[in-house]
Write a structure and sequence with these properties.
Layout (H helix, E strand, L loop, with lengths): L7 E6 L5 H10 L3 E6 L2 E6 L1 H10 L7 E8 L3 H9 L15 E6 L6 H20 L13 E6 L2 E7 L21 H10 L7 E4 L6 H10 L20 H13 L8 E6 L2 H13 L6 E5 L12 E5 L10 H14 L6 E7 L4 H5 L5 E7 L2 E8 L2
Parallel strand pairs: 5-6, 8-9, 8-11, 9-10, 11-12
Antiparallel strand pairs: 1-3, 1-4, 2-3, 4-7, 6-7, 12-14, 13-14
Length: 376
């Protein structure tokens, strides 16, 4: 089937709090009918848009093809409405199509039963379309994902494979690393630009700095990885080739961006250097072993963005709050300098020593955090 000019309905799940950022970047990619909902963004486009979204989305977790949305309160309803969808448009005779998903606050609450019903419905549909009684499923992977929320069913085909936060530069992270999609969002919210100088005084494996650099240079986060839909015969190899070339052409190679990362742990610094090298950002980011108590805002300007260790992550609550106090002392008010700190500790401002100029609620996985910003 030629999908070059066919409109495809898609969805981009994202961390809670990032829906606006995810929707904005999709609009800038020329996606059509972009609509943000709680934890996801819906949009439309052709096969090039599907490829472009996979390559370029910084804040979304994956790109799925929306097969259908409907209400279902019985297994019979789920079966019939799933069977009515055009699965043959995407799933070939030999393709693999496992089913996985979740159910929340719904009458159909048993995930294993829902998996079996959806699988059976798709099989019955394809039996008729292909005049086959059995499917070997040895071909390309077309994973069916479902979400049942308050009796509303969303069925999608995953086109990404590993989550989009897996950029390809961080096979190994430090203890409790921040998710790449959240780090990218922090860089955006902290106003990292192509000429910014960014500092992370507790950089861990370097994720925030690497994502800041990729954003400043407009490097597509998916350029160094592959996607499951690259193996689909329904999407042309030309779409992948042309969109990769497009992404390379959009890189800001003359950007003046630079960054520095510090951490008290020397082994973590070595890991951060390795990750920056794999990301192609080692010339833009320098790392050194240094205690946060030695931090000083040197130079005319700087953007400090960090994810300090906290009670649930690496340190005791008392130790973490000691670091917040040190930050308050070392993060001086200075023209041309701004600070952005993410933490789940609601008492952060008290221990930091002053009220923030702005804050934003974000989620690190399922952990509710706040990004505290100081720029005045």
């Amino acid at each position: 089937m030629n999908l070059e000019s066919t409109t495809i309905r898609m969805a981009a799940p994202c961390l809670l709090g990032l829906e606006g950022l995810a929707a904005g970047e999709l609009r800038r990619m020329d996606a059509q009918n972009v609509a943000a909902e709680n934890g996801r963004v819906f949009f439309e486009g052709d096969e090039n848009m599907l490829v472009r979204a996979n390559l370029n989305c910084r804040y979304s977790e994956r790109i799925g093809i929306v097969m259908g949305r409907f209400e279902a309160v019985t297994f019979e309803e789920l079966f019939e409405k799933t069977k009515a969808l055009p699965w043959e448009r995407w799933i070939g005779k030999s393709d693999a199509f496992p089913v996985k998903g979740s159910s929340l606050s719904s009458k159909l609450h048993s995930v294993p039963d829902c998996q079996k019903i959806i699988k059976k419905a798709v099989v019955e549909r394809l039996k008729v379309k292909y005049s086959l009684g059995w499917f070997e499923e040895t071909g390309a992977l077309h994973r069916i994902q479902f979400l049942i929320m308050k009796d509303s069913v969303l069925l999608m085909l995953d086109t990404s494979g590993p989550g989009l936060h897996k950029r390809g530069y961080r096979p190994n992270g430090a203890i409790a690393p921040i998710k790449e999609t959240l780090a990218a969002a922090m860089a955006d919210i902290a106003f990292v630009r192509r000429d910014s100088h960014v500092i992370d005084p507790c950089c861990g494996s370097g994720t925030i700095l690497i994502e800041s650099a990729m954003k400043a240079l407009n490097v597509a986060p998916g350029l160094r990885r592959s996607f499951v839909a690259e193996h689909w015969r329904q999407i042309s190899p030309e779409a992948w080739r042309s969109e990769r070339e497009r992404a390379k052409d959009l890189i800001n190679r003359d950007a003046k961006f630079s960054a520095c990362g510090y951490d008290i742990d020397g082994s973590v610094i070595e890991l951060a250097k390795e990750n920056a090298y794999k990301a192609g950002m080692s010339k833009r980011i320098s790392f050194a072993q240094r205690d946060i108590r030695d931090f000083k805002p040197d130079g005319e300007r700087g953007v400090v963005v960090c994810n300090p260790p906290y009670g649930e992550r690496l340190l005791t609550e008392e130790e973490a709050r000691g670091i917040y106090k040190t930050m308050g002392e070392r993060f001086e008010r200075r023209e041309g300098w701004s600070y952005a700190v993410i933490t789940p500790d609601e008492e952060f401002e008290h221990f930091f020593g002053r009220k923030c100029d702005k804050q934003r609620k974000l989620y690190n996985g399922m952990l509710q955090c706040r990004l505290y910003m100081y720029f005045k």
